[in-house]
Amino acid sequence: MTPLLRHLPRAAAFGLLFVAARVSAATDPSFVLTGTSEQFGSYFPSYLANGYFSTLTSVRGTEPTMGYMVATMDYAKDDIARPAAMPGWNEIDYNPGGGWLNSTRVAKEIFTDYSQTLDMYGATLSTKYRFAYANKATDVQVTTFVSQDAGHLAATRLTITPQFDGSVQLTFPIRLWSEHQPRFPIGKMTGDEMIAAVIASGQNLDNKPVPTPDRAAVWYPGVVRIESNGGDTKTLTLWLDGRAEQGVAVAQAVAIELPKGLDVEDVQLEKSPYKLSLNLKAKVHKGQSYRFTKYIAASREGWGGNAQADLALATQARKTGFDALLAKHQAAWHTLWKSDIRIDGDAKVQQAVHSDLYYLLSNTTVGTSWPMGACALTPGYAGHAFWDSDSWVFPALLLLHPERAKPIVMFRHRTIGPAQERARQHGVKGTMYPWESDPETGKDYTPHFAYGVFREVHVNADIAIAQWQYYNATGDDAWLKQYGWPVIEQVATFWASRVTYDKASDRYEIHHVTSPDEAYDDVPNDSFTNAVAQKALRIAVKAAKKVGAPADPQWSVIADKMYIPFDDKNQRHLDFDATVPHDKITWMGSSLAWLMYPNLDLPMTPQIRRNDFDFQLHELKEHGDDPNEMMMVMLAVGSAELGDAQGANDWIQRNLVGFLKPPFNVRTETVANNAGYILATSAGFVQSFVYGLSGLRIDDDGLTEAYAPSLPSAWKSLQLKGVHFRGKQYDITVEHGADGKAHLTRKAL
């Protein structure tokens, strides 16, 4: 503590420290992303979210954008389950007399002195510009957040400073979205039928220029049907009750706060099939600033109450005030950032890590059993839970934020029933979790055109591995017995019924599977599938011992005799059985890099690991096209395992190019597409540091230094701050030693 602080009362000293910390973080450019008018034509929206609900960002900061609520799904006839877009809550519109702000074309000469900043440290979006149109100018500032402190609340504040005297109009709508058209029966269409239907609708599935989203013809939102709504011009409130199509009930409410002393000329309530709004007319004076605040409360069945309950929340938020709500929201985010990844030596990498952590944290809940959709709280991949949840997002969060990783493993326990029913339908035992699980019900809603991925059964082993990772990281015996073991046991039962015994070779094989490199469908003995199945079976034996339950003796027998295809001549693994030609052009080129990924980390000699890695790179070059970022982010981990710090750095740098869409570093699935928000890629990038450069693995012995740490020569250090492991916390640092090698140290907190 400095001499000055030493002489202050403890509370005052703490206050100054807190302010200093906020100032330091606020000025840290790695937490700040800013858009300018140069990006008007290529603006790629980000989103604000708190794990429970979201809204997209927009150029003006005031336009109506779609948001989504966790696991709130639409179940239309013959369609897949898809996220129902919640009524649009963020919009405020303003008319100084010559035209509405949100309807005026976006141009540099109209929106001057423009900047829009995403402060990731406090998860707040701030937009500033001068709106100069029809011979009138107004300085505009917009601040929006979705509360991390109070999960049901969000708020947006519009501050206008007109450069004229006169009357202005403002509207505060809730947009009641219409159903997407055309709506295709994707639940029963073949791939060819779907493509033909998309073309017939005047659309296509080609990559689109920003900001038009790719594959919107397939990943469109579901609908919330409004059952009742209303508003009050005296209390300046709006409310609605609705229901996602054949899904859960949804409610929202809005309370408007006007500037004190505002000369209000008129307030009207507008109700239509598409909009519920409070419309205001008021007199303003040149050079005076006016703050208009819109407080939003949202809920869904199973999380919160109805519209009247939300109305009480929104009106209470108005009493509390914007500044107080914002301060609590930002403080909650500051607490989250106590667990962080800090890089000394590469500002661009540091900023990318922070943006990836921001997107992961924005989409996590605490104390629930909801998973994370592949594309977060957006309609991408229809909001379904894939192996992304268990093998990508979960490990990335586990050490830094175990309470936010936990809902992912709890989801699999909650949905054991549907997985058991699905196993019976496919003639196997135990649980057969879907490739695409509905996050609300856990049922299989894989599109019919992707029906073949019912063979991508490695997801079942991925789930068991995540359960065991959670146990190993927490040491929670009671959790393992009540929640983890039932999942692990049922997955092992599945594999024991799914394998085939080859008597001639005295080995177990797994036939008719889809490789993670999904162009290879219905192949025998995919190496990754066989390897994760082997690990899941061995986990089941260990878990049974921990909980005092009997283990099926066949689990060990099958695991010990599991066939993993290998090329003896070239001393490397094969992607799958040698009878299948490896000659297709795919997003990945090969799936051998999966064998090195931290959640599996298949044991092999350093030379075989090198040979596998070299083959992966060769095939990515020869048989890869517009490579998938899920593959690309793994290559840094592979390089680190091989002790190649420069190679790891090269792949880290490569993952900053093209995949991060400006201005807010939204990761897309490939460089060429702009479908956006593929959370697995953010999680994979985070794992490059947590498990790749650190060399750490979560295993039965603890948090083990499985590989020597790696550190790019230009970096001074890599620090994993606030790591949680078995009830303790650590700061883990990788630095260059006097011997020139990277060294890892742990400091207990």
From TrEMBL:
Residues annotated as signal peptide: 1-25
Keyword match Ubl conjugation: no
InterPro entries, per database record: 6-hairpin_glycosidase_sf, 6hp_glycosidase-like_sf, Gal_mutarotase_sf_dom, GH65_N, Glyco_hydro_65_M, Glyco_hydro_65_N
Keyword Signal: yes
Family annotation (SUPFAM superfamilies): Galactose mutarotase-like, Six-hairpin glycosidases
Annotated ranges, domain Glycoside hydrolase family 65 N-terminal: 79-298
Coiled-coil portions: none
Record-annotated Glycoside hydrolase family 65 central catalytic domain positions: 379-587
Alphabetical UniProt keywords: Signal
Pfam assignment, any one: Glyco_hydro_65N
Protein name: Trehalose/maltose hydrolase-like predicted phosphorylase
